[in-house]
Design goal:
- This protein is of the alpha+beta class.
- 45% of the residues lie in helices and 15% in strands.
- The protein has helices at residues 54-62, 91-100, 102-119, 137-159, 171-193, 211-217, 221-234, 242-257, 272-287, 324-340, and strands at 7-12, 14-19, 23-28, 31-36, 40-46, 67-70, 78-80, 260-263, 268-271, 299-300, 317-318.
- The chain has a 4-stranded mixed sheet with strand order 1-5-6-7, covered by helices on one side. It has a 4-stranded antiparallel sheet with strand order 10-8-9-11.
- The longest helix is centred in the middle third of the chain and has 23 residues, at 137-159.
Amino acid sequence: MSKKRKQYLWLPYLAKIKNGRQEVRFSYKGGDLKIAWQDIHAIMIYGHTVPLDQDFLERCAFWKVPVVIHRRNMPRAVFITPTLAPDQNNILVKQILFRESAKKRAYLARRLLLAKFKSMAWLYPISYNPFYRVTSLEKMVNFEAWHARQYWQLFYKKLGISSWRRQKGNIVTFSLDAVSKFLAAIFLRWVLYHGLSPFHGFIHQPSDYPALIYDLMEPYRGYFDKVVFDTLKEEDLLGEKKEVALGAVINRIKEFLDEKAYVNATRQVVTFNEIIHGEVLALRSYLLSEAPRFVVPLPGRPNGGRPVKAGYKLYGHKAGITNFWPETREIADKFCAKIASNA
């Protein structure tokens, strides 16, 4: 029997919260939800909300549930996180030491950004390694900025929108920003769960917002962008009200997080949420020298060869079952075909 998955909550215009010792009830625009605290993965509150009282915040801290508050006209989201628990392996010290090392920081940035380009290949593929013999973090970030301009120009053009990524007010930017905040809560949960600091990143410089969260989001941005693109286009939402489009997009993102994919790094079939968790496991393994490399888990197809020394295992199925490989190839082909479908 599979373990019940925790829920990613999106609560637009939260009107009422009723706390209980083991469960909580939310009333928001669109419905009511009664759920056990232990079943909550993360919470994103969108739009105007009722005051969050001390009891609610203390219960979120007790159950290690991060809360992200996002409003349309706020340049940055509000992040409410539990305090970091003490770690016998002193993972936090390792994280900061690696961040202060120019060589290690550049290495981690390279691995994250190369994975990002791969996830965006459905729209703007790169046929070469742009970081071959590049050791400067600044040069990597500059190339990433150039790539992003080409990618977003094509993204908006194919949707028939005369705009660009950083221009506010259009439904595409609005949806992408909200999805980013929604996903940030999910990444934040895994980062806090494993005792890492969300504020000490390797690519993003500032430490006054959870930079590590946005670092770890980079390898998967292209996959989530594809979900937003397909939802807006297939459901003809570009002319709808923003909140209507956002509701549809968030629901599709939730469905995508439960989709199964094959990860060659560990030779496992897992859901996309477990891939996100696996990235935090990969970083932890590398920081603690349990693995010689930082191996970002990415969806793909079985390619044979020797197993990768990743230093971690995902929370999913392992090879060895009689029907593993036939089913795995079918799952891998289905996922890759969906991502590679023409825009």
